[in-house]
């Protein structure tokens, strides 16, 4: 009997030790990025503590499995309401998965409990922006009271003033941000657009040049830099930028047009003709496609009102242009505050093209967004 008792005791202690040693091993696997094996060890451990659930959630989050990460963060918080990191990460994941109303609730509570934490105000402001809550700017301003050099918040506040056409305020906030973080390309881009709005071509040119120095390459940057050079009569440099636009977007009508104009100014007429011919050929494509292409470029620049007008014109020319109809809904989603209006645009797209095979991908996107908006609508009523 004594031998049997001793054997059972040894087995019990061995199992306990194995369970205890499994957690440090799981932590080590997590630290080197072996997330799946770490998750398996955490799940197979005898511990069902809040900290274990939090670690499982963090591992799922690292793999990009947002649903399971949220599920495990929720379990962790149910067991321990003091897990601040879990609450913060959970709020971020709600925001990432477009559950803006729930994210708003999480960060409101965190702000109440930890009123000196600037990041919680920043996250709350982001959630409010998505909910068209105009008090978002107050949360961003609170961040700057706590941390005057908070780069992401400086950008959000500057963007707010840009939309309000408070261009001088944008300059002030931008300069402040760049003092402590000169490589802030998002702010430099906003300052470049601000300079264009102020018709300060030299300043805009300098900002777009900075972006290229920081290895930022896009149609938007090269085309706008080319436009600055063109208007400053630096035609050779303008031509070079418009060619770079064409390399990135081969059917960019305006780039072909202005490349041709630049060459005309340089008296390189034969070369200019080749670019201008292509511009004419591109302009002869179906009119609705021309307007759709133009509207998409406006949309990318967040000029949603003008984009909406051009998408509607495209649809007047061709009511079966599913891309124009979908992008119109996206623009409306970004431009209008009223949830019902935004929902109606997506519903119209789905009704018109639910049986159109070519629109399958856009239908998938529209239905997902519709689901999010209807959830917001439901939560707003409660």
From TrEMBL:
Q: Which residues cross the membrane?
A: none
Residues spanning the signal sequence? 1-18
On the tree of life, the source organism's domain of life is Bacteria
- Spans of the TPR repeats are 50-83, 84-117, 219-252, 288-321
Q: What are the UniProt keywords, alphabetically?
A: Repeat, Signal, TPR repeat
**What PROSITE patterns does its record include?**
TPR
Name the InterPro entries on file. TPR-like_helical_dom_sf, TPR_rpt, Ycf3/AcsC/BcsC/TPR_MFPF
* Name this protein carries in UniProt: Tetratricopeptide repeat protein
The organism named in the record is: Mesonia mobilis
């Amino acid at each position: 009997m004594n031998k049997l008792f001793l054997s059972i005791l040894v087995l019990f202690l061995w199992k306990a030790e194995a369970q205890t040693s499994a957690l440090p091993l799981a932590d080590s696997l997590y630290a080197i990025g072996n997330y799946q094996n770490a998750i398996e060890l955490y799940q197979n451990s005898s511990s069902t503590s809040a900290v274990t659930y939090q670690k499982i959630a963090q591992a799922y989050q690292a793999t990009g499995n947002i649903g399971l990460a949220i599920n495990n963060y929720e379990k962790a918080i149910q067991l321990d309401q003091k897990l601040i990191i879990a609450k913060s990460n959970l709020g971020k994941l709600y925001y990432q998965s477009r559950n803006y109303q729930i994210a708003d609730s999480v960060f409101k509570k965190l702000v109440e409990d930890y009123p000196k934490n600037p990041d919680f105000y920043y996250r709350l402001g982001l959630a409010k922006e998505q909910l068209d809550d105009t008090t978002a700017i107050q949360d961003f301003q609170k961040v700057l009271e706590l941390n005057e050099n908070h780069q992401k918040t400086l950008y959000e506040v500057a963007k707010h003033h840009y939309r309000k056409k408070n261009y001088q305020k944008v300059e002030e906030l931008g300069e402040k941000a760049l003092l402590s973080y000169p490589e802030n390309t998002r702010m430099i881009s906003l300052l470049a657009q601000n300079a264009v709005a102020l018709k300060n071509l030299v300043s805009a040119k300098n900002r777009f040049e900075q972006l290229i120095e920081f290895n930022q390459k896009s149609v938007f940057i090269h085309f706008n830099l080319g436009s600055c050079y063109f208007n400053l009569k630096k035609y050779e440099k303008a031509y070079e930028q418009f060619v770079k636009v064409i390399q990135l977007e081969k059917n960019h009508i305006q780039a072909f047009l202005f490349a041709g104009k630049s060459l005309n100014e340089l008296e390189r007429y034969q070369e200019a003709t080749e670019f201008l011919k292509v511009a004419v050929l591109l302009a002869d494509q179906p009119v609705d496609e021309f307007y759709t292409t133009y509207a998409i470029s406006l949309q990318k620049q967040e000029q949603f009102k003008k984009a909406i007008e051009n998408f509607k014109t495209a649809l007047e020319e061709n009511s079966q242009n599913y891309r124009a109809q979908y992008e119109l809904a996206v623009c409306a989603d970004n431009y209008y505050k009223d949830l019902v209006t935004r929902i109606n645009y997506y519903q119209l797209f789905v009704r018109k093209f639910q049986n159109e095979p070519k629109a399958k991908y856009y239908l998938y996107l529209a239905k997902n967004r519709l689901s999010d908006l209807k959830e917001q609508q439901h939560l707003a009523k409660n």
